[in-house]
Design a protein that fits this description.
The chain is of the alpha/beta class. It is built from seven helices and five strands; from the N terminus they run βαβααβαβααβα.
Length: 183
């Protein structure tokens, strides 16, 4: 008899808490394996996110084969985990990944909070000009990518959780929802 893991996708805008929540959830759930989107080098991924959004944000342009291969490898291993947790920003929007995902969670983090977190995370050793340029780029161009996620990913997720809650509370709510759904 083959074991079929429950695959749970955690999505949010950059700085929204995907990685933190995926890691903490992995520690709380028995028998979970985590995969992190940022650990992959996706060939032929759009090289300009702003242009990609302006051209319609076709999530199927992303060749997610490396992540799909890892999911398949885990599913066919001798010790299949109960859960595979994906730190993965696209929810059900990529057709190749969609068939694997059993539950999607969107961490709904206000854009100002996400930007503040990104600055704290990405600019620990930066000079003020680097921070200034990052914020300027966000305001002039990058914000559209964040809004795309709010408009597409959030609305295509099974569960939306307030990203301003403490991480432990978010994980508690996710576990409660998993148990409620009998997953």
């Amino acid at each position: 008899m083959s074991v079929k893991p429950m695959i749970i996708s955690i999505a949010a805008v950059s700085g929204g808490g995907k990685t933190t929540i995926t890691q903490k959830l992995g520690l709380e759930l028995d028998d979970a394996k985590e995969l992190f989107f940022d650990d992959y080098d996706f060939e032929n991924a759009p090289d300009n996110i702003v242009r990609w959004v302006d051209q319609g944000a076709d999530y199927n342009l992303w060749n997610l084969d490396p992540m799909v291969s890892d999911i398949e490898r885990i599913k066919s291993s001798s010790e299949v985990p109960t859960y595979i947790l994906l730190d993965y920003p696209f929810s059900y929007m990529n057709e190749k990944m969609k068939k694997y995902i059993g539950l999607t969670i969107y961490i709904d983090t206000p854009l100002d909070v996400a930007m503040a977190r990104r600055i704290l995370r990405d600019h620990t050793k930066s000079n003020i000009n680097d921070v200034h340029n990052d914020v300027k780029f966000y305001l002039q161009y990058g914000r559209v990518a964040y809004l795309e996620m709010e408009n597409s990913i959030k609305t295509n997720s099974d569960i939306v959780i307030d990203g301003t809650l403490p991480p432990d509370k978010i994980v508690e709510l996710i576990i409660k929802e998993i148990r409620y759904r009998g997953l």
